[in-house]
Amino acid sequence: MTEPEPLPPPWWHSAVVYQIYPRSFCDSNGDGIGDLPGVISKLDYLVELGVDIVWFSPFFRSPQVDNGYDISDYRGIDPIFGTLADADMLIEACHERGLKVLIDLVLNHTSDQHAWFIESRVPTSSKRDWYYWRPARAGFEPGAPGAEPTNWGSAFGGSAWEYDPESREYYLHLFAKEQPDLNWLNPAVREALFETVRWWVARGVDGFRLDVINLIGKPEVFADGYVEPGSALSYALPDLIDTERAHEFIAALHQEGWGDKVLFSVGEVVGVDVEEARRYTDPLRCELDMVITFEHMAVDEHGPKWALKDFSLPELKAILARWQHGLAEVGWNSLYWCNHDQPRIVSRWGDDSPEHRVASAKTWATILHCLRGTPFIYQGEELGMTNVPFASIEEVVDIEARGFFHDATAMGMDPETALNIVRRKGRDNARSPMQWDASPQAGFTTGEPWIPVNPNYTEINAAAAVADPASVWAHYRALIALRHELTILSDGSFELLAPDHERGVAYVRILEGQRLIVVANCSSEPLPLVELDLPIIPETGVRILGTHEGTSCEVLAPWESRVYVWT
Ligand code: GLC
Ligand code: CA
Fold this sequence. Notes:
This protein is an alpha/beta fold. It is 28% helix and 15% strand. A hairpin with a 6-residue loop joins strand 14 and strand 15 (504-511). The structure holds alpha-D-glucopyranose and calcium ion (CA).
């Protein structure tokens, strides 16, 4: 018997995703909040950049406690963003331009204003069991201090349980108290969510980004977890995720939700290692096409995200290499530095001073975009947008950062220290308005923006970047084009070089007779190439991309990176 022909790699192996945070992208009507007509007016910008897939953070009806990740109606568009007709128009406008549409579904929890939860609040209602209602801890008076059913903390600070005096019971919320967790163990809940998914499939979306999707697999019995001292996120994930159940529910979601359509899916998963990621993304299991994971984002964290640790390049490289190898044969990697939950990469691990901002933003892009996997770009990353200089905690809107600041200072942390941590890690760094041009409010709005524009917009903006062949934008565009052109980027093997080098990155990709090498200097000092132990002299190959011109062949300038190919 002859072996069956291997299937061709899926189209998204050579695709690049661009994430839009609608609130902060483009405001069409001057109310200070980005909206869907605003997005439509900027789609040609994305076409020029060359991306393939657009991921839209939630634009569904929502009280906006967590900027739309608290959905009160999965089938409605929040009026601040537009109407359902605008959403249909957006899908069509993307398709006309060859862009695929990825919507962001939050299926682990709803808003406390969702009709399901309002109904569930009534103890006798048939929807009581749609959420996790639990009595007080045995031996405790309901509502008394310490009476919460378990010691789990919410990711946004405080307990994960909210007391409801009417029914003298608690409901579970792993995020804000306005984001109650849905009980996926109840088949009626699952069916209602699958129906929601089918409804959007019928509207023509190409796939889903699924928010914290492995949290849907919860154990039947809830027990106290290990509490990390001084941590806002005090729950231990193994106590609240039943991994086997998560797999089972995600497979069911795929089967019942996608139907016979081939859609593209990205699941955000928490506390997942390479082995588990391989299972989630194994094509034979029909669960997810790729997962957004966190291990590489935690190199500057010491346990919880707010406990800062010095960044270590060797540690980052080791993690990336482990994921590159672990998902090489089975499964697939998503590749990212930035999204709406992360600070800006150029400020985080690059150097956002005027001298090195452009080169360091480009070099972090080179390192990411030449790996195996599907690269994600978060709005403004392609401009080298930086973190925001918050003067005080009052300027911070984000519920997560405010929750941390509250808990940390209540536990005795000095407010200036807490503010500095928020400046480094807070999510609002990513949420300041997209910087379109040098006009007032960066061209984002004609009104007052919901969150201040970064004052550096007069220099860092899309209009300037698009016009400048040496801009960060031009470099991203070149990297995206390479991804489309070179199969070695999507399908080549990966080998890390110089793993222990403190400030240099080097790796090889190989496909059939072809070889590609990436070298990068992640420091503000020159780096002699000999230090990177390359298996071949770079200049014998063709330099297909670089961040600098006219630098010495043997030495990388500060924050210089290059890509060489041998055919
Ligand atoms: C995900 C989202 C984040 C949100 C959280 C709760 O991590 O990316 O923005 O706050 O889930 O929905
Ligand atoms: Ca608006």
